[in-house]
User: Which sequence fits this backbone?
């Protein structure tokens, strides 16, 4: 099956919660909707489930319009953030509920329920009541309930956000394992971009009821079409700051209040029409290097200094938070190093080399990328 | 929070018809509910003779305020017969006084008790005091009626006569509540059901809010007054309305405890009126002249529309209380939990 | 101000339970913790470990059954929370819902009978620190604010009275992942600016590492280990500590040490000389972090085959991860970019692997911090 959304719109009173959202989820695709709270991602999911009516636009499943099809006729399975398991039913009956309400034969139920439970390692808990289970176990009951149905599509509404970090990894693998087995279109909603990046075949970043960008995690990370997508994808966040484009005889320079950077020729030509004007510069933390470790030549044209504020140890090295003092307030910068910066550097001024080939430039007003897509000059 | 009623698929014809049928059914229910109210109001405006006509008329043939005049001059000796001893407004004022005092003292007391039980007590102590308060709901009123009556005679003793101080021939000093408004007010102060409502609400207030206020330096009473009470406005509105109604409309207890004609409340006065009217026909002897006047009144049907007028007057304060409380109820329901 | 928690025990008697106190596991079990003046200590642990109870106890919102809490050298057992001069931030923000933002800040000054001017001046000062748009929040009813905005008001309410001790109870756990990042930075700066002693409770190890000068790990009412990130990460006291820290799960291999080699399932790895001398033969559990695996060569016998479920690339950390199973244990492994799932064979990096008892969780050998420079 495929799910196709065309100009989906939902209004609550005079507020438009979902505003002309378009995407397609292919056969067996794991599609993630990600965005900050209130961006309309959950409402979109609820429209796909049929729990929310569609004010405008079309939702198709297998090219059949299902706008007016009731949830129970859509043959979908959904996992909720709060698990939504029935507290008065045993684990066995919780898992069997979807089958029983569809009048599946008892013999089939007897066979399928333990199977589904075994997949999620809860077959020893079938007699328990939900309140006797831990959060992780409840989550797995919800997953088993979704799995047992053999639905045509799977919907997830932030299923991991109530779990401890330790359990989250396991649950993530469980969901992906379920997906591998069923190979049905899946729409997964989360506010956590790292979860989205790790799980999605393709993903959509939403903001204010609209989709900003759809693509594979890598596409969105490397080629964000807007400053918002660039900021939203990636931890620690991309460094965004304002600069002015200045041209001299041969080159185009980015003039930030405290330093300037020379743009490489390809980038320079893309923004040639904007010389003299302001741009928003985006530099990923991992594109800032200690000069000696930089995989490129470092000179005055691609270097600036900043004061180390905080060093956060990470497994891969360290994330260093720095400030560049400027006439109009300090500029906060995060840099991801592959080595641990020793604590004695705290408070010190250190040079940072910028990988200029990976700099992103955005229009400061529309926030669209100047190097990619429709926003490019 | 979007409504849970599923809207998807409602445009399918099958579902549309069933929905229309449900709406129609509910509409009939509403009409049936409103009919008695219409009948009360229309009857109070009918001329006397029309009230007793059979079959009854649905729309008054002529609108008259005779019944209203009758009721407002109910205690006048100048009337054909003096129906009750005092003018109507005395009973009204008695009821109003008792109700306002009972609600005004009762709500804060009940709310504080519930707050203490919900947030200040814990563990076994909280359970025991909760059961103690709620346990009072389990005992039917008729069981406590007589002991309570005795209690009002020689408070705080449950005896018809105050006991003697041992070794002397003087009685213990006691308080005679009987035939005073306090006999009605005091038992109405703590309402277990309101306690339950308050406690239910206070339980939903996150402890962290109270703790935050404590860390901020507020005393316990200050926290209740400045933080908790404003949050509880809707609950105060509901409980105020319900207490108001139950005290205002209470009859049996007021009949038992209030005897002097000038202390009687609306509900008791209305009852006494009905009582006198229904016995009027059979009363003979010395009061023959009066009974004859009553008979005239009865025959003219005026008493029945007079009853309707009393019913309306009895209901109006409750209706006003409802309007006032509803305002606060709606204004106050903004407190939401997390997310 | 220095905070010293000395041997504190706290036990709740479950409501309606007929069992005596002795049957219930204590919420806090002989906890001692020392927080130096101006230091931030993160208290971290899984849910139900007693970390929030400990915080409330320091705040004076709970009383200890035994043991003492000292503020500097003063036993504060008899000081009510109202007079402890602390600022507290709660997980659910705990704003006063019927007041506007400004009213929330003002309440402290009201109950302490301070002047209107002082209250307003302080609020203004805080608004400057909290940055852009903060004054707008103060004019709004708190129930109309978003989670992030509510927490900013709550933090301001905590800071406005110039407390001598900050107590933070999972302050950012209810925020969006992205918002969490910026809020924790804002808080770290605030703590640095004020230099106030802070106790920061969280269940998220990453947050604990970010906020804390030192980290105290709690489990079932006991302090398991206190120390810096390096100590906890590279020298864990037991398996629980080792598997609690790290952004990706630690692989735990049940194995046997015998003949100067580690035998796990089908595979055997010879141990380096130094390590082989230190480990007694017998059953162990080997803890290997995702970044502590080495891809072995193609020759057979050189490493354990990994059954790969999927390969994930994490551009922000320049990592490629393989998820699957090694020697029967679930494993997440950092592999070189471009690695394919077929024929992946792995060897633990013995300089970075930790050994734990097979029955107890006690560390037999831990690698210690690596030489970075």
Assistant:
């Amino acid at each position: 099956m495929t799910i196709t959304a065309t100009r989906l719109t939902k209004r609550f009173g005079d507020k438009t919660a979902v505003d002309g959202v378009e995407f397609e989820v292919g056969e067996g695709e794991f599609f993630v909707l990600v965005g900050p709270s209130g961006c309309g991602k959950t409402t979109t999911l609820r429209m796909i489930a049929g729990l929310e009516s569609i004010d405008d636009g079309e939702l198709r499943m297998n090219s059949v319009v299902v706008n007016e099809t009731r949830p129970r006729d859509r043959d979908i399975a959904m996992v909720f953030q709060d698990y939504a398991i029935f507290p008065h039913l045993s684990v066995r009956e919780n898992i069997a509920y979807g089958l029983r309400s569809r009048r599946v034969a008892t013999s089939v139920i007897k066979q399928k329920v333990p199977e589904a439970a075994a997949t999620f390692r809860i077959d020893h808990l079938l007699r328990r009541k939900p309140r006797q289970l831990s959060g992780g176990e409840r989550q797995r009951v919800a997953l088993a309930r979704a799995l047992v149905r053999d639905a045509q599509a799977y919907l997830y509404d932030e299923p991991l956000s109530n779990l401890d970090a330790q359990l989250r990894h396991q649950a993530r693998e469980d969901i992906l394992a379920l997906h591998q087995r069923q190979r049905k279109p899946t729409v997964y909603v989360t506010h956590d971009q790292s979860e989205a990046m790790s799980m999605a075949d393709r993903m959509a970043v939403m903001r204010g009821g609209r989709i900003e960008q759809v693509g594979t995690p890598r596409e969105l990370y490397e080629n964000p079409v807007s400053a918002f997508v660039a900021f939203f994808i990636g931890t620690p966040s991309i460094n965004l700051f304002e600069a002015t484009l200045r041209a001299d005889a041969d080159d185009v320079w980015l003039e930030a209040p405290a330093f300037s950077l020379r743009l490489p020729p390809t980038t320079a030509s893309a923004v040639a029409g904007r010389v003299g004007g302001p741009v928003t510069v985006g530099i990923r933390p991992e594109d800032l290097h200690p000069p000696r470790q930089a995989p490129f030549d470092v000179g005055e044209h691609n270097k600036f200094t900043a004061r180390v504020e905080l060093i956060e140890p990470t497994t891969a090295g360290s994330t260093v938070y720095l400030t560049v003092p400027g006439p109009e307030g300090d500029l906060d910068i995060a840099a991801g190093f592959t080595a641990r910066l020793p604590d004695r550097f705290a408070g010190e001024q250190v040079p940072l080399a910028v990988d200029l080939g990976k700099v992103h430039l955005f229009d400061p007003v529309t926030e669209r990328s100047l190097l990619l897509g429709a926003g490019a000059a | 929070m979007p409504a849970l009623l599923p809207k998807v698929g409602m445009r399918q014809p099958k579902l549309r018809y069933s929905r229309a049928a449900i709406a129609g059914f509910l509409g009939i229910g509403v009409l049936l509910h409103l009919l008695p109210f219409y009948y009360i109001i229309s009857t109070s405006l009918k001329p006397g003779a029309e009230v007793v006509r059979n079959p009854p008329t649905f729309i008054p043939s002529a609108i008259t305020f005779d019944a209203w005049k009758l009721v407002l001059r109910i205690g006048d000796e100048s009337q054909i017969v003096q129906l009750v001893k005092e003018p109507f407004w005395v009973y009204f004022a008695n009821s109003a006084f008792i109700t306002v005092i009972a609600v005004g003292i009762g709500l804060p007391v009940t709310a504080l008790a519930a707050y203490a039980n919900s947030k200040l007590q814990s563990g076994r102590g909280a359970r025991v005091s909760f059961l103690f308060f709620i346990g009072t709901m389990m005992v039917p009123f008729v069981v406590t009626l007589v002991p309570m009556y005795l209690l009002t005679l020689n408070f705080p003793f449950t005896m018809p006569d105050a006991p003697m101080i041992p070794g002397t021939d003087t009685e213990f000093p006691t308080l005679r509540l009987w035939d005073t408004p306090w006999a009605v007010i005091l038992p109405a102060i703590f309402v277990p059901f309101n306690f339950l409502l308050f406690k239910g609400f206070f339980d939903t207030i996150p402890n962290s809010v109270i703790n935050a206020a404590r860390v901020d330096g507020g005393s316990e009473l200050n926290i209740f007054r400045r933080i908790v009470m404003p949050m509880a406005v809707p609950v105060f509105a509901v409980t105020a309305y319900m207490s108001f109604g139950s005290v205002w409309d209470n009859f049996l207890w007021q009949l038992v405890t209030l005897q002097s004609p000038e202390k009687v409340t609306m509900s008791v006065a209305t009852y006494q009126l009905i009582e006198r009217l229904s016995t009027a026909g059979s009363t003979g002897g010395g009061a023959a002249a009066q009974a004859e006047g009553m008979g005239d009144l009865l025959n003219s049907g005026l008493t029945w529309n007079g009853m309707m007028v009393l019913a309306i007057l009895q209901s109006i304060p409750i209706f006003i209380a409802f309007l006032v409380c509803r305002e606060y109820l709606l204004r106050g329901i903004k407190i939401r939990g997390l997310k | 101000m220095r905070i010293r928690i000395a041997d504190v025990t706290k036990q709740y008697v479950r409501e309606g339970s007929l069992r005596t106190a002795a049957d219930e596991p204590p919420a806090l079990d002989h906890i001692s913790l020392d927080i130096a003046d101006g230091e931030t200590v993160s208290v971290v642990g899984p849910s139900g470990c007693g970390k929030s109870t400990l915080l409330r106890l320091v705040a004076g919102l709970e009383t200890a059954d035994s043991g003492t809490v000292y503020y500097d050298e003063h036993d504060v057992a008899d000081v009510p929370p109202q007079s402890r001069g602390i600022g507290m931030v709660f997980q659910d923000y705990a704003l006063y819902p019927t007041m506007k933002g400004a009213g929330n800040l003002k309440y402290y000054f009201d109950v302490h009978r301070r002047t209107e001017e002082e209250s307003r001046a302080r609020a203004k000062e805080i608004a400057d620190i909290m940055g852009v748009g903060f004054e707008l929040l103060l004019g709004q009813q708190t129930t109309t604010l978003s989670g992030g905005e509510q927490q900013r008001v709550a933090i301001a309410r905590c800071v406005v009275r110039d407390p001598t001790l900050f107590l933070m109870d999972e302050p950012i756990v209810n925020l969006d992942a992205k918002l969490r990042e910026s809020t924790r930075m804002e808080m770290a700066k605030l703590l640095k600016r004020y230099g106030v002693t802070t106790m920061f409770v969280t269940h998220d190890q990453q947050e604990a590492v970010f906020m804390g000068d030192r980290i105290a790990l709690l489990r079932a009412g006991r302090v398991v280990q206190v120390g810096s990130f390096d100590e906890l990460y590279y020298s864990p006291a037991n398996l629980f500590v080792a598997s609690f820290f790290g952004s990706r799960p630690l692989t735990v291999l049940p194995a046997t040490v015998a003949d100067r080699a580690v035998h796990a399932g089908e595979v055997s790895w010879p141990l380096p000389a130094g390590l082989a001398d230190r480990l007694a033969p017998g059953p162990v559990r080997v803890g290997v972090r995702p970044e502590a695996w080495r891809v072995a060569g193609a020759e057979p016998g050189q490493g354990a085959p990994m059954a790969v479920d999927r390969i994930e690339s994490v551009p922000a950390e320049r990592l490629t991860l393989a998820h699957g199973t090694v020697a029967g244990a679930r494993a997440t492994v950092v592999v070189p970019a471009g690695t394919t799932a077929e024929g992946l064979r792995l060897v633990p990096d013995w300089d970075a692997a930790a050994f734990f008892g097979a029955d107890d969780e006690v560390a037999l050998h831990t690698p210690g911090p690596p030489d970075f420079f």
